[in-house]
Amino acid sequence: MGLAGCATIHRQPFTETQQAEATIPGVPQARFWADAPGAARLMAPVYAGANGERSMLALSGGSDNGAYGAGLLNGWTKAGTRPEFAVVTGVSTGALIAPFAFLGPDQDATLEQLFTTISAKNIYRNRFPLAIPLSPSIASTKPLARMISEVMTDALIDRIAAEHARGRRLFVGTANLDAQRMVIWNMGAIAASKAPGRYGLFRQVLLASSAIPAFFPPVMIKAQANGREVSEMHVDGGTTAQILTLPDQAIVAGQLPSALNRLHLYMIVNNKLNGEFHLVRPRTVPIASQAISLNLRRSAGSTVALSYLYAKAHGVDFNLSFIDKDYPRSEKSLFDTEMMRTLFAYGRKLGETGTFWAKRPPDKDE
User: Fold this and answer.
1) How far apart (Å, rounded) are the C-alpha atoms in residues 31 and 182?
2) Which of 223, 272, 319, 342 is deepest in the core (most CB within 10 A)?
3) Where is this motif: DGA/G (predicted)?
4) How far is the C-alpha of 15 from the C-alpha of 36, rounded, in Å?
């Protein structure tokens, strides 16, 4: 009973109205709802590259499959064609990659270290079995929180603030469980703020975006509504969307913000988009695992397809990369170091060839 009590989250109830009014103290522009009418405008960068063109990089979720995206970025650098992105977005494992991709090629070594040297013990620690029923999750993510603090230093966050001042934008998605809505966090605005807790908040958001519900504990982020503290519950952004380009509402509305004209869109999906045959063992865990995998893959596929149609209608240069369906399926445990090294090398080799971008989503029979 004592062990279970130690893991319990305590917070005061609040209303939907208070949630709607809640802001982050000292950082009024810290975040916005993904389904808000002005979300696309808030994502538009000021920065423009040569000839007024802009590049946007969107990194998907995928757990340990993030090794693919990390390797691809390393190879892309070696190919010599990687642009400076005006906008970078990340969800789940893509959120952990995003700040380093945003800062540029000098962070490639950090990405390689993160996805080729760690194992499950660096990410989570299973709770004592008797404590699980009264705990917010099966595992604790204290190891992951510690790793994020070690690699995402104050100095790197200050560099992100400097790039934000240049007009570049970095966004990370989380899911607010109470509101049942996706939240887009303006990480550059957080970094550039003078709020005393900006460094801690920056790391908290990264941890929250990777917090798989029930398996990992939610991250409680403190906000204020009319002077009253509101303790918000945030989890993996992949719960609402596996990848973030423009908000769905903006895509459906069919309007492209003027600041995103002449846009090159690069989407890295840290997963397979095509269906693959796998004989499922008739047991609870394999059945649940396969069902969740199917749901996530379909979610990613829908967002990719919608983004493609939007890009085609508005003259956006569409580029997509994902793990090929013929890449061997891993039967190893989550965050297996050798598996991630192999996937990282696969992504890096593709990146070095310079031919890893598809100009349209795969057909279901491709």
Assistant:
1) 10
2) 272
3) 236-238
4) 19
Residues 6+ apart with CB under 8 A from 340: 64, 67, 115, 116, 118
Q: How far is CA 11 from CA 21, 220, 230, in A?
A: 18, 9, 8
Per-residue confidence (pLDDT) for residue 39, from 0 to 100: 86
- At residue 53 the predicted structure's pLDDT band, cuts being 50, 70 and 90, is confident
What topology does CATH give the domain 16-353? Cytosolic phospholipase A2 catalytic domain (3.40.1090)
What amino acid positions are annotated as catalytic residues? 92, 236
Q: Which residue has the higher pLDDT, 332 or 311?
A: 311
**The overall pTM is greater than 0.85:** yes
Please provide residue 41's backbone torsions phi and psi, each rounded to the nearest 5 degrees. -65, -40
Rounded CA separation 256/261 (Å): 7
Confidence label for 3 from pLDDT (cuts 50, 70 and 90) = very low
Closest of 58, 139, 174, 112 to residue 334, by C-alpha: 139
